[in-house]
C-alpha cells in the first residue's frame, strides 16, 4: 500500500522498502540578512537575520566534545525590551527558512505580543548538519538524531540567547511548533518548563504511538475529507486500486496506464505498480493535510479547497477501469500540475524539497514509530495491517537500527500528561494527524482547540481573507492564552524580586 | 586542600590529582532471596528479593542495542493490591543493598502506605555494570554513566514492573532518594511526572551547581557543626593545618607525625602531607554528614553525636603543635577506630566500601560539577578557591573528559522549578549538603522540610528511640504528603474511569 513521505510528518509504515529520496537540497543563502518570501496571496517582506550557535553533537554523553553549528533565525522588528516576549519556533524535519516562511501566525502576532521571533533549526535538517555531508552516512553518524538531543539544543540555544541578547534574560519564552515541531513544542514545555512559559503545539500527534489511538484513524480521516468533498469521491478512489491491479496485469495495460497518467517514467513491473499505488496514496494524504480554504503553496502550489477541485473529477465510481484511471489522472494533475507547467508526473516527487525525507525516515525507524493501518472498509485504501516485525526488519536493512516503539511513551508520558501546564494543542478536523492529537481539554491549562474547517496546522499560517471564522476564533484564543502566560510570567518575576 | 570522596556525594573539588581508590567490592550474593541486615540498635530482618531487568546501555541513541542487567530489590510483605502504593528508591552511587539497608524509613512506613518497596540500583554501581569489569576502563565505556540514562532506567523499570506484576499497574509510585539519590528522585518527578505521583528528595543538593549557591557554604556548615559541638573545637582544627605544615618541614617531623597519628603508611614527602590534610578534611566532612543522635554504622561505626565525642579531644587550640596533633589523632581515632580494632589509621580509606568512588569521580568530572571553596575565615579549612580550569584539566587527565558545569542547570532548571509539583525536599541543618538544598517552600506542592538536629538524610534512616522530636515531626509530615499524593492519584484514577 501507499508509500508517502508525508508532509512535516511522514507516514512511517509506508516508507521502508521504498527507494530513499535524496535529502532536500541544502540551499545556500548568499547573505546573512534580509530574505524575502511570498506567503499565500500577499507578497510580504519578512526580515530576519540568520545566525549559528555551537551545539554539542552529544548532549548526553561525554566521550566526545565535538560540536556543530545549529542555524537559527531572528526577527526582532516588533520586539520590546520592556514587557516583551520571545516566540520560539521549535524547528522540525526540514529547512528552517521554509518553516519560517510558512509560519505567518508568528509574524502576525509579533507586534501584539511585543515579541522577538526565533526560529531554531532541528539538527540533521537544513543547514544544521552535525557531520556535514556525512551526517546520513550510517547509524554511527545518525546516532545523535533524536528528539531528546533536539530539545537539548533548544534549551542550550535559549540559554545562549538570554546570555547574549541584552533585554532578553528576563522575558518569557513561548514555544511554537506545528506537526512534529508541535510535538517538540509540547514536549519542550513538558521537559524544560523552566525554559518556556508555555507552548502552542499545532497539529501535534503526540498520541500516534503504540496503541494509544487506533492505527486506522489517520487514513479514516483522509477518507472522510474526500467523502465530504464531493459525491462518490472516496468511493471512486477506493475502486481505483483494483482498477489499477486489473489494468496492469499485461504489458499493454502497463503501457496504457503509464501514458494515461502521463508518468515521466513508464511502469515496467509489479514493483513499479506498488510504487504507483503508494505514490497515489501519498498524494491523497498530502491533499488532506493541505486542504486549505485558499490558494496556497506549501507542499505544492494548489487551489483553494483542493480536495473539492480533485473530487470534481471523481464523481462516478461506476465507470470502466480506463475511464476511472483517466479521471484519477485529472485528479492527480490538480496536485502535481496546478501551475500547468509540468510535462509529465514524476513519481519520485510528492512534496516540497524543503523537508528532510532522509532524516525523518531514520527518526521513524528509531523513536518516531507511528503505527498506521487501513482496512479498505472504514477507509478508501487497500487493506494493510500494521506489522511491527516487518517494519522493524525494513528499518534494520535500511539504517542498521531497530525501532523502539514504546520509548516515546516512556519518555513523554503518552496519555498520562495531566501534571503539565500551559500547553495549547490545536487541531483541524480535516487534518488526518488530528487523529493522534489532543482534541479535548485535559486540564484548565492543558487545552485543546479544534478548528472544524482546518487542515494541517492551518492556524500557524498567515492571516488570509478567506480564513474561516472558526480559525479566527482559534487564533484569538491562542493569543489570549499566550498573553495570560506572559502576564503570569511577569507577575511571578515581580514576586521573586 | 582536602581530598575526600564524600559519602553518597563526593566533594568534587578535592578529587582530581588524588590517587583513585579501587571501586567498591562487588559483593557476590549467594542467594537470590532472603538477606538480613542489622540496622541501628535493633536487629531487623529485612526480606527482599533480588531481581535483574534488561536495560538499553544507551536510551538516547540507536547505534547500539546493547543491553545490560540492572539489579533491583523488591520487598512486598506489606503491599496491598487494593489501594496500595509503590515506594521506589532511586538508587545512587553505590551498592543498592547497602542503600536498602540504610533506608529504614521506607521499611518503617511500608505497612501504613500498603506499599511495595522497590530499590533500583544506579547503572555503573553495585552489580549493575553495563560493561562488566570493563565499565570503568575508559571514556568510551563510561559514556553512558549520566543522570539522564539513570532516570531513563528508572522509567523503563517502572513500566516493566507495572507490566509484569499483577495489581501494580494502577498504583501510584512515589520516588524516594537521599543525597544524589534524592536529586534523582526530585529530577525523576520533574522529568517523568507520568511515572511517579511525587518524590521525597532527602538531603538533595540540587542547587550545588554553577553559582546558584556560594561555593563556600558547604564547608561553612561543616565548620559550624564543629564549632557548636564543643568549645574551641573548630578553632583547634583550623590551627591544625599550620601545625602540620610546620611539623612536616623536616624528616624527623614527618616521622614523628606518622607515629603520632598511627598511620599505616608513614609520610615521606610533601605530596603525602597534602594527602594527609585532604584525608583529615574528608574525615571532618564525613563526621558532619553522619552526626547522628545515636550510635550508627553508615560510613563507619560511630558513637551517638560523634562530633561531640571528637570535640572532647579538641578543647584547647593554644597548645604546642605536637600536642595539637596528638589531640587530632584522638579525634580521628573516634571516626576510624570506634570499634577499637584498628592497629593503624589507613589514609586510603575514609568510608564504607559500598560507595562507588570511581563512578562518582567520573560523574563529578562530567555532569555533577559542584563548585566548592574555602577561605579559612568563615570555615576551619585551609583556603582553597574554586578553579574550574584546574578542575577541568585534572578531569581530562584522569578520564579524558571535559566537565560541562552549566549542563545540569540547563537540564533540570536550577532555581527555576516552580512549575513542578509534589516534591518534598528534606534537609538537616547539620548536614553540609543542606547548603545546596531547597530549604524553603517554593510552592504549596514543592515543599521544604528542615530538621534542625538532622545530619545527612537522617529522615531516611530507621526509627530509633533517640530520634529527636523535629525528626519525628518531619517524618510524619512526609508521610502526610505521601498519603495525599496517593489519595489524589486514586481520585484522579476514578475520575478517568
From TrEMBL, chains A, B:
GO cellular component: lysosome
InterPro entries associated with the record: AB_hydrolase_fold (IPR029058), Peptidase_S28 (IPR008758), Ser_carbopepase_S28_SKS (IPR042269)
Main location: other
SUPFAM superfamilies for this protein: alpha/beta-Hydrolases
GO molecular function terms noted in the UniProt entry: dipeptidyl-peptidase activity; serine-type carboxypeptidase activity
Pfam (any one): Peptidase_S28
EC number(s) recorded for this UniProt protein: 3.4.16.2
Range of residues in the leader sequence: 1-19
Location of this chain's protein in the cell: Lysosome
Keywords: Carboxypeptidase, Disulfide bond, Glycoprotein, Hydrolase, Lysosome, Protease, Signal, Zymogen
GO aspect biological process, one term: regulation of blood vessel endothelial cell migration
Catalyses which reaction(s): Cleavage of a -Pro-|-Xaa bond to release a C-terminal amino acid
Class of this enzyme: hydrolase
Top-rank taxon: Eukaryota
Subunit structure and binding partners: Homodimer.
Protein task: Cleaves C-terminal amino acids linked to proline in peptides such as angiotensin II, III and des-Arg9-bradykinin. This cleavage occurs at acidic pH, but enzymatic activity is retained with some substrates at neutral pH.
Entry similarity comment: Belongs to the peptidase S28 family.
Protein name: Lysosomal Pro-X carboxypeptidase
Amino acid at each position: 500500500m501507499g508509500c508517502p513521505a508525508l508532509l512535516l510528518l511522514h507516514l512511517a509504515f509506508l516508507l521502508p522498502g521504498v527507494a530513499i529520496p535524496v535529502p532536500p537540497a541544502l540551499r545556500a543563502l548568499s547573505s546573512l540578512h534580509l530574505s524575502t518570501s511570498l506567503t499565500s496571496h500577499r507578497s510580504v517582506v519578512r526580515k530576519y537575520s540568520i545566525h549559528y550557535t555551537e551545539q554539542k553533537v552529544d548532549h548526553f554523553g561525554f566521550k566526545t566534545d565535538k560540536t556543530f553549528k545549529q542555524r537559527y533565525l531572528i526577527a526582532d522588528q516588533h520586539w520590546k525590551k520592556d514587557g516583551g516576549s520571545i516566540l520560539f519556533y521549535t524547528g522540525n524535519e526540514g529547512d528552517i527558512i521554509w518553516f519560517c516562511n510558512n509560519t505567518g501566525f508568528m509574524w502576525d502576532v509579533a507586534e501584539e505580543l511585543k515579541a522577538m521571533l526565533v526560529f531554531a533549526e532541528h539538527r540533521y535538517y537544513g543547514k544544521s548538519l552535525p557531520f556535514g555531508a556525512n551526517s546520513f552516512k550510517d547509524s554511527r553518524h545518525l546516532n545523535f538524531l533524536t528528539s531528546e538531543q533536539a530539545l537539548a539544543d533548544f534549551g542550550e540555544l535559549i540559554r545562549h540567547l538570554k546570555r547574549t541578547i541584552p533585554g532578553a534574560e528576563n522575558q518569557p519564552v513561548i514555544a511554537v511548533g506545528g506537526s512534529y515541531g508541535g510535538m517538540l513544542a509540547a514536549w519542550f514545555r513538558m521537559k524544560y518548563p523552566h525554559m518556556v512559559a508555555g507552548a502552542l503545539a499545532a497539529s501535534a500527534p503526540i498520541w500516534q504511538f503504540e496503541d494509544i489511538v487506533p492505527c486506522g484513524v489517520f487514513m479514516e480521516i483522509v477518507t472522510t475529507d474526500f467523502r465530504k468533498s464531493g459525491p462518490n469521491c472516496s468511493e471512486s478512489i477506493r475502486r481505483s486500486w483494483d482498477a489499477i491491479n486489473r489494468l496492469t496485469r499485461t504489458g499493454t495495460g502497463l503501457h496504457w496506464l503509464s501514458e494515461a497518467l502521463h508518468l515521466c517514467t513508464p511502469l515496467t513491473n509489479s514493483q513499479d505498480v506498488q510504487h504507483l499505488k503508494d505514490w497515489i496514496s501519498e498524494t491523497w494524504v498530502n491533499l488532506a493535510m493541505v486542504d486549505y480554504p485558499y490558494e496556497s503553496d506549501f507542499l505544492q502550489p494548489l487551489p483553494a479547497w483542493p480536495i473539492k477541485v480533485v473530487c470534481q473529477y471523481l464523481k462516478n465510481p461506476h465507470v470502466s477501469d480506463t475511464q476511472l484511471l483517466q479521471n484519477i489522472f485529472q485528479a492527480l494533475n490538480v496536485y502535481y500540475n496546478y501551475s500547468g507547467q509540468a510535462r509529465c508526473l514524476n513519481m519520485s516527487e510528492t512534496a516540497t524539497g524543503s523537508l528532510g525525507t532522509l532524516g525523518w525516515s531514520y527518526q521513524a525507524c528509531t523513536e518516531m514509530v507511528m503505527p498506521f493501518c487501513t482496512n479498505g472498509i472504514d477507509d478508501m485504501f487497500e487493506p494493510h495491517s500494521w506489522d511491527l516485525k516487518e517494519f522493524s526488519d525494513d528499518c534494520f536493512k535500511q539504517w542498521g537500527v531497530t525501532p523502539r516503539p514504546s520509548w516515546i511513551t516512556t519518555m513523554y508520558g503518552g496519555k498520562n500528561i495531566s501534571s503539565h501546564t500551559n500547553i495549547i494543542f490545536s487541531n483541524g478536523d480535516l487534518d488526518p494527524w488530528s487523529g493522534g492529537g489532543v482534541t479535548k481539554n485535559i486540564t484548565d491549562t492543558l487545552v485543546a482547540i479544534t478548528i472544524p474547517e482546518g487542515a494541517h496546522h492551518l492556524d500557524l499560517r498567515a492571516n488570509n481573507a478567506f480564513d474561516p471564522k472558526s480559525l479566527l476564533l482559534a487564533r484569538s484564543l491562542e493569543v489570549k492564552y499566550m498573553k495570560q502566560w506572559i502576564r503570569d510570567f511577569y507577575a511571578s518575576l515581580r514576586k521573586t524580586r
